[in-house]
Amino acid sequence: MANFNEKSISSLERKIISDILNDPEVLDNITNKLEPQDFLNKELGIIFSAAQALNKESKGVDPHTVINYLDSHDELQFDEYSDIVISLYNQFTTSVDVDDHVDLIKNASIKRKMDAFAAKIVETKFDPTVFADQMFNMEQEFMAIAGSKKNIKLKKISDVTASYQDKLNTILDQSNGGYFGTSSGYKDIDKITNGFQPGDLIILAARPGVGKTALALNFLLNAAEDIKRKQVNDQSAKKDVVVMFSLEMGAEQLCQRLISMHSLIDLSYRNIKNISSSEWHAFTDSITQINELPILIDDSSDISILDIQSQLKQISNNYNIKLVVVDYLQLLRGPKSISQMNRQQEVAFISRTLKAIARDPKINAPIIAIAQLSRAIEQRRGDRPMLSDLRESGAIEQDADLVTFISYKNNETENFADEQDDKEDMVKTNDYQIGNMNPIVEYSISKHRNGPTGIVELTFNKQFGKYLEIIKQGEN
Predict the structure, then answer these.
(1) 136-142 CB contacts, 8 Å cutoff, 24+ apart
(2) Helix locations, 211-291, DSSP H
(3) What is the pTM of this model?
């Protein structure tokens, strides 16, 4: 059935319209697959649009109703439209290949669009001063064409329940605590979230310097180590990876932090020359182990949300993405057309796009997006962060599946310096001193679309950037 020419496509289009005029149920079955502009013959596209409009208004679709519809819409009329509708109705022959015919019509339509797109690229005069925007527009146009083949999205409840039962069976069969999603590495968090779920957008927010990046890196490292353990016996995990987009820190800084939290050695430049021989052995061993972990890092400081989307789609061609960390949301930029709007609209676009990326069937991974809180929280010293503290856009709260915050317990801290490795000052909370004792940090799940909310307490070893579980009395 390949190599259909325009004449044969036009013949199929007439056959489909004849089927619709004689059997309205045909329209119900194909309306999610075809659009009027998919027809090579524009007149047939107009008849199809009239039939769609009648069907949407719950009116019968037959030659008389279609002709009456065209009679009342001057802008849709064409020469001898009444005769053409009657002629198409009368040429009806029983068809058993409607779906195949629709696919061929749709594929021919996409082929015409691709040809026009290729010609446009050849004719485009690329300007180095706006090259990035031109490339973005081209990419968006191509993606719109590639994604124009519609699929029926309605699902039978029996299919959904079967899929859900399979998911439950997977959870029951797992030996790692029974978590379906990507484990955070902290059992009390996983008890609430059941692991970070594929397709979820997870916001991790706090005031500057509290330890957002450090916690996200702990999640990333824990997930990568879990994958590495699974790969020993599970061939399906061989292509699993975690991905980090860092707009604030370079790859070497991230590597230093990962090695420090893995080896429990202070690797600040001030301390590196003074480490002992035993520490050096642990340091080199950690480098070897980190080197083998399935971690991908993009440390581009000027990256857009659409760059992230493109990168993840490319990665998903070769790998199974188990976790994505973006540090941080407010540093991302939207396309130029969006950035010309106000900042709240731009952040809303970025938030919606992050959610769409997480749910993309090719990617289908949990995305942890680090976010800054507004300064309003500084007026409520001692209080935990609230959803209303999310900076610049209420859309972040709306789009997220989980909104999580971190803050020091009984917070009386006035200054934070998580990102300032060389700072000597000891910052005190009520009972803990950052720098020589581990403060207790509250990880608050304040919104959970698919489960409970709650607070999990962790300790934060600031010297190594390591978050640890608190072992309660009676626990091993």
Answers:
(1) 136/304, 136/306, 136/335, 136/336, 139/306, 139/310, 140/306, 140/335, 141/117, 142/117
(2) 212-231, 251-263, 269-272, 277-291
(3) 0.64
